Amino acid sequence: MPKLKMFVSFEYTDLQLKETLIGQARLPDSPFSVTDASLQEKQKDSVWLSKAQSAIARCDVFVVILGQNTHNACGVLKEIQVAKGLKKRRFQIRPQGKKWNPMSGAGEMVVWTWDNLKRKLS
């Protein structure tokens, strides 16, 4: 079965969490691959939005990594709206032991464990 292509939306200060998810994608039994489409460089909003739309459109599933400040990340909020508009399968993952609130429109919130992630993507 081909691996699902995942777009990961995250607040830039949570880069380490994204790197952890990329590491899990490399495991032999991983049901997903991560297309690293981080749009970190400074650009006009219209250029950034166009690149985000294109990257999200190419993916099978859209995932938000919840961090302490994700709710304040304008880029994450815009990416959620794009994924929602494209009717992408979407959900959000919260690191174990953290009580951060889910993001509106980002789909179901799942506690981030390897088993939960594999189950959600199966």
Explain how this protein is built:
Helices cover 36% and strands 21% of the residues. With 122 residues, it is an alpha/beta fold. The chain has a single domain (4-121), classed as 3-Layer(aba) Sandwich (Rossmann fold). Strands 2-1-3-4-5 form a five-stranded parallel β-sheet. The mean pLDDT is 90.
Compose a concise summary of this entry.
With 122 residues, the chain is of the alpha/beta class. The chain has helices spanning 15-25, 45-57, 74-85, 114-121, and strands spanning 4-9, 32-34, 61-65, 89-95, 108-112. It is globular.
Task: Throw out a few tags for this protein.
122 residues, alpha/beta, Rossmann fold, 4 helices, globular
Give the topology:
Elements lengths: L3 E6 L5 H11 L6 E3 L10 H13 L3 E5 L8 H12 L3 E7 L12 E5 L1 H8 L1
Parallel strand pairs: 1-2, 1-3, 3-4, 4-5
Helix pairs in contact: 2-3
Number of domains: 1
The total strand number stands at 5
Could you say what the CATH topology is called?
Rossmann fold
Main β-sheet description? 5 strands, parallel
Could you estimate the helical fraction of the residues in percent? 25-40%
Roughly what fraction of the amino acids lie in strands? Answer: 15-25%
Looking at how many chains there are and whether they match, the oligomeric state comes to: single chain
Instruction: Give the H and E element order.
Output: EHEHEHEEH
CATH class: Alpha Beta
Radius of gyration over alpha carbons? 13 Å
| Morphology | globular
Write the CATH architecture name.
3-Layer(aba) Sandwich
Low-confidence stretches: none
Through-space gap between termini: 10 Å
Mean pLDDT: 90
- Give the structural class: alpha/beta
Strand arrangement in the largest pleated sheet: 2-1-3-4-5
Number of helices: 4
